[in-house]
Amino acid sequence: MSAGTWGMSLGRTIKQRQRRLRISKSLAGSVTVLTVLIIWEIAARSGILPEVAFPAASAVLVALGGLIFNASFWAAVASTLAAAGVGLLIVTIIAVPLGLAIGRVQFISKSMTLVIEFLKPIPPVALLPLALLFWGPSPTMKVFLVVMGSLWPLLIQISYGPRGVDKTQLDLARSYRFGRTRTIRHILLPTLVPHALVGLRVSASIAIVVAVVAELIGGATGLGQSISLAQNAADLPVMYALIMATGLIGLAVNALFELVGKPLLFWHPTMRVKES
Amino acid sequence: MKKLLRDVSIMLWLPVLILLAWWFGSANSTSVYAPPLKVIMQTFAHDWLGERFVSDALPSIGKFAVGFVLAGIVGVVLGLLIGMSKSLGVALDPLIQFSRAIPPPAILPVALLIFGIGTTMNISVIVAGAVWPTLLNTIEGVRGLDPQVSDMTRSYRLSYSQRVFRVLLPAAAPQIFAGLRVTLQLSIILIVVSEMFASTAGIGFYVLNSQQMFAVPETWAGTIVLGLLGYIATAVFVLVERRVLSWHRGLFNATEKV
């Protein structure tokens, strides 16, 4: 066997083994999920779990299935995601220039330190009553809270970006007489994008949480409000199904970021470690 | 000395400017929603520097502290167990990923059904909602142990407890603390939200109640209390983290910044 074909068959074997590993992993995972569902079902039916708090697993799954064909559920999802999305857009518009300025200019970074250090740990829900005072249970109120809650991760990650730029690379770019655009394209962006994606991902998950809270407590339309409506109507299966649905949406958003990140970051060391 | 003075003034000018602008900008405010800062501060001093601090703030802080400590302990212990066992990790992964993706406040209605209104409900919501970052980071920290170190512990025949307390925990500590910090932030959010959602006392209840009664200065004052609570809790945490991880910080600075 020549070295070339040997290498290729080795590559194939590794790929096959990886695939087999993945399959066995997802198999083990589904077995756990199934087991939990079955235990839940038995415990709820036999009355081990208090009936007032726990509907049977099958009832919840049926309700979850029913949600798929329920237009008002999808309207609620759209409303929650829209608030989170618009909030994230505003966050990006604020965080990118401000973060870059903080990362590059010492004076700005020092001036902002105390303001950021004080504002950052304030829980976004603390602002909920004030936001309700100003805007009532409206989409504006939701978006405001989303912005206040999810600004910090992205802002801080982006401000790390310019500090992480390799000085040697910058010198190299200068000695090769790279213009401004090429320096940005080949040196600044590759250092910035990983930071920005990490920040954006954290910001996105916070944005959804904040939007749901604003609906649950503030009473704006969306998934959170649907949960509290189902709770008030004592419709437990639907309430549980809605809670599960918010979890699934969170997972979907996370998966979306991974999907976007992969082609953008395939060259990054963290991605290479993941492959092996 | 001169340099210090300059540094301090660079750090302070913006916050001072913002506060002054707020103070004087709102001084003659007749807006119902934005009362003068002076009125807000008077309400703050009157409401929160007296008996309300004992009757509303202390119970909230206590519940928050208990919830956070419990969430931290549960997260670290379970994380150690799951991180050390490969099969446990594979089996539980989808369950953990799913539970962590649920926005923590969404479990409020469930907790209310199980425990009713009361301290147990507040604390259980914190534990169930805020445990995930610590759990996940502990798992990752334990798994990320250098295989050479792991081999070393075996060839030195370290006992189980030695391995856990002398090797695994210190090695995972930086990541555990990163997780604990997120858990802390979630705990604050959850104590506030759970008091807003269903409670008859506490800071969260006070703020939302003031808003519903249209007591505007009280709403502002309560918001300031919540902000201070978040700020102080984070500051204390950072102090503890620096203390515990001082060895790591030194190591990190020595090796990573070459």
Structure write-up:
- Chain A is mainly α.
- Chain A folds into 2 domains: 1-54; 57-275, Orthogonal Bundle (MetI-like fold), CATH 1.10.3720.
- Chain A contains 11 helices and no strands.
- Chain A has helices at residues 3-46, 57-68, 71-104, 106-119, 128-135, 139-163, 167-175, 180-218, 223-232, 236-265, 269-275.
- The longest helix of chain A has 44 residues, at 3-46.
- With 258 residues, chain B is mostly helical.
- Chain B has a single domain, classed as Orthogonal Bundle (MetI-like fold), CATH 1.10.3720.
- Helices cover 84% and strands 0% of the residues of chain B.
- In chain B, helix 2 (37-48) crosses helix 10 and helix 8 runs parallel beside helix 9.
- Chain B is globular, with a radius of gyration of 23 Å.
- The interface between A and B is large, with 56 and 56 residues.
Give descriptors for this structure.
heterodimer, A: 276 residues, mainly alpha, MetI-like fold, 2 domains, 84% helix, flat, B: 258 residues, 11 helices
